[in-house]
Amino acid sequence: MIKKIILLSALAASLHIYSQKYEWETATSNGYTYKYVSDDPTQARYYTLKNGLTVILSSSKKEPRIQAYIAVKAGSKTDPANNTGLAHYLEHMIFKGTDKYGTLDWSKEKPLLDKISALYETYHQTTDDAKRKEIYHEIDKVSGEAAKYAIANEYDKMMANMGAQGTNAFTSFEQTVYTDDVPANALDKYLAVQAERFRKPVLRIFHTELEAVYEEKNRGLDNDGRKTFEAMFASLFPENNYGKQTTIGIVEHLKNPSLVEIQKYYDTYYVPNNMGIIMSGDFNPDEVIAKIDKAFSYMKPKSIPQYNPGNGYQLNHVIEKEVWGPNPESIMMGYRFPGASSKDAQLLEVVGDMLTNGQAGLIDLDLVKKQKLLSAYAFAYPLKDYSVLLLQGNPVEGQSLNDVKNLLLQEINKLKKGDFSEDLLKAIVNNRKKSFIQASENYTSRANELMEEFTSELDRKSTLEVIENISKLTKKDIINFANKYFKDNNYAIVYKRKGEDKNIKKVEKPSITPVEVNREAESPFLKQINNMPEKAIQPVWVNYNQDIEKGKLGDAEVLSVKNKDNALFRLYYYFNSGKWDNKLLPIAASYLEFLGTKKKSSDDISKAFYQLASSFSVNTGNEETAIALEGLDENFSSTVQLFEDFIRNCVADPQALEAYKARLKKARENTKQNKAAIMQGLRSYALYGAQNPFNYVLSDAELDAIKAEDLTKILHELLDSQHKVLYYGPKSNSELISVLKDTHRIKKALKPIAKGMVFTQTSSNENKVLFAHYDMVQAEVNWVRNTSPYQVDTTPTISLFNEYFGGGMGSIVFQTIRESKALAYSTNARYYTPSKAIDKDYFTAYVGTQADKFVEATSAMNELLSQLPESEKLFNIAKTGLIKNLASERITQDGIIFNYLRAQKLNLNSDVRKLIFEKVPQLQLKDLVQFHQTEISKKPYTYCIVADQTKVNQEELKKLGKLQTLSLEEIFGY
What we know:
Elements: H1 2-14, E1 24-29, E2 32-37, E3 45-48, E4 54-59, E5 65-72, H2 86-93, H3 106-125, H4 129-147, H5 154-162, E6 165-171, E7 176-183, H6 187-197, H7 206-221, H8 224-236, H9 241-244, H10 251-254, H11 259-269, E8 275-281, H12 285-296, E9 319-325, E10 330-338, H13 343-355, H14 362-369, E11 375-382, E12 386-394, H15 401-417, H16 422-439, H17 443-455, H18 460-464, H19 466-471, H20 475-485, E13 492-498, H21 524-530, E14 549-553, E15 556-562, E16 568-575, H22 585-591, H23 602-611, E17 615-620, E18 625-632, H24 636-649, H25 654-671, H26 675-688, H27 700-705, H28 708-718, E19 724-729, H29 733-743, E20 768-773, E21 778-789, H30 795-805, H31 812-820, E22 826-832, E23 840-850, H32 854-866, H33 872-888, H34 895-905, H35 912-919, H36 925-935, E24 942-947, H37 954-960, E25 962-965, H38 968-972
Parallel strand pairs: 4-8, 9-13, 15-19, 20-24, 20-25
Antiparallel strand pairs: 1-2, 3-4, 5-7, 5-8, 6-7, 10-12, 10-13, 11-12, 14-15, 16-18, 16-19, 17-18, 21-23, 21-24, 22-23
Helix pairs in contact: 2-11, 3-4, 5-6, 5-33, 6-12, 14-15, 15-20, 22-28, 30-33, 30-35, 30-36, 31-32, 33-35
């Protein structure tokens, strides 16, 4: 016990867990007054402009990019009750432009848009089906006329031309957030576009975008997890819009949209005193705040309708609901708590960590590590009005959902009784502090944290004080909290049953005539933005000789990059060996979790790692394995020593193995009920044939034959096999080797790795269809084809082709299939280079569509694969965006080492991005056309299709190619 106390005290000191004085302060610079919290590691400045607009700026000079969010404190909970899904609709429409961009001729377009709006109002109020069809036919007709004056995706084109990444948006309960990651030199352009974007959005190209929302709704109907989540919130919040309304909305409201109501919603909530601009990255805040003020000063504040969160509803009985679907059975349980800004919400997050932290939580140790459930977790979900604790569990074979519920409740009761160690509380504090450091490491995570605080109306000072506050918690505090909130009758439970969902009400496909996208057109505003001056960013390539320190530890190469920012480390033992070489290796890696040594139990080891604020994982791929250790460099030696003793001395546990085998068999059966896994199997079948990497697994008989000693032998000998040591942390290479000599003892001659199975990519001379049945509303289609042997010289052309053809919302594929023809919510295409020089490139395309649009969607993609649409304008945007992205991209931390290892596998001795950057400016559109003709056009494809066989016409499948309906056994190999 004395040793443990010393260890925790040392850790606390290394994490600086002492009383810091976080206080709100005020300062003035460049004529602008801002608030900040002293000792805030993000150095965030909080401005409130004269019109009420909140601006939060956190400067970080590590990379020449900026993560920007424009957040609106409005979401599904503020939707009108008779127009649910409206906030989400509006999110989609904010991408469509204004009267200055997105239009060829506003004076001619506006009367048509007004007419469409009026038609939708009539449609909205009409109940007669025949009349509704007539009105919709007229909407479709007028929309086609209006689209002749629209320029689709002009926003995306402007952002792509800047070198932006992650251009998107999302809507949740109380937030709608627009996100872009832009090069630092494009800030002026970004602000000019955003200021115009929110000035007066135009609701154009509405009926095709509405169809995309229909598609999104139908995808949700195929998502058992989403249905379970929605049923849970409906149970917990019958009086609050968290439960009364869903983000996408109900089918009846989706089918009866009102542009008038959407405009009203925008006018009500998209006002400066309800919005925030949050940025983190490479900028001078004094300069940026003045630019934001100038750009957004036109916005006028308005009073916001007061939202009523409900009457503090008390749940005093157990609410039970059932959800049906094709996925495996599970349960979700939920409890309500006060909102995110309350002290109890902070305590709830600690309780969530006590139940599940991935290592030493009560559920981790009692239910997962002891293999009483297939999987289980607890998750604290703080929201503005109320917070939630969610618990989820999946049964093992022969276990009822009621058994799962009782096991989860037993863990809740342990909290109430105080059946836990106070050391767990201390370890949670230390791990929270480590996570706090990690969250401040990069500009994107900083911006995200500050944005979430803004939309949830959390006080930054309170957030920073959390560590100090929870460090004062006692065991008695947790017991009191648990008894206050966890009663025997105040929770909701949703039973996810396997079977047909008879309540699904699909959004039916309306008749839509493809609209013009005018991809060659450019508005004067776009030209103005593109012509704005910007200072070029000089690219930085990884220099494998200078950026990586190299050394030797016995027979192992040691590669390291120094962490100059904080006291965290990441250490890897990297093996060029994986499942293909030994099918038992991934089994052994997973089995390790349940083992102990002669001196330490499995629980003891998990607790020891968590107390060190460290963790380990063993990740086995097809051809490589990586053991990863991470934590505080202060505890580097202790962490390494703990792991090395564990893996070299782990003791075989036959009982744990039998439980693991049973769970693995159950997990494998569950995977066969997952449509994403089925599609992954089909793609592997298409690339490699009937025997492929996906189904190269142990049969049930082979699994039964495994002995515990077989697996521990693999684990004991693993570190004696050839491997590299990779490190990112505060130590130099020589310091690292000096420390590792005493902890990572390596034999002078490491054992060579015996190579096993080799898979060869297939070639095909005919179109094929691989079909798998799945009970679903949608149909998922992948086009797959192996192409040419890898050649590094083609990489620039491939990179540019991907940007142009299928890379984003401004690409040919997205514009044609979604924007023009409204045939899919999600669609893309990509040409891939392999991970090894001896392998071939390959190409995939994807459409997720309603089953009744299957023929149209596949035909549309086939047209694009047969003939590449040529647009000089889109080509130049793709080229410019790619060059700017490469110039502003920085590979940092351990990413430098993994970039080097990838290059080695491709027989490259330099950063391939340099070649792309130098060659792309020389490419012309005709080069992409030639590439398309050589590698893609009129070539045989394998169509991988997952759909309900009753909803997709088999004769139509045969028209695509030679049809082969695969069983799950053929796909999965067991």
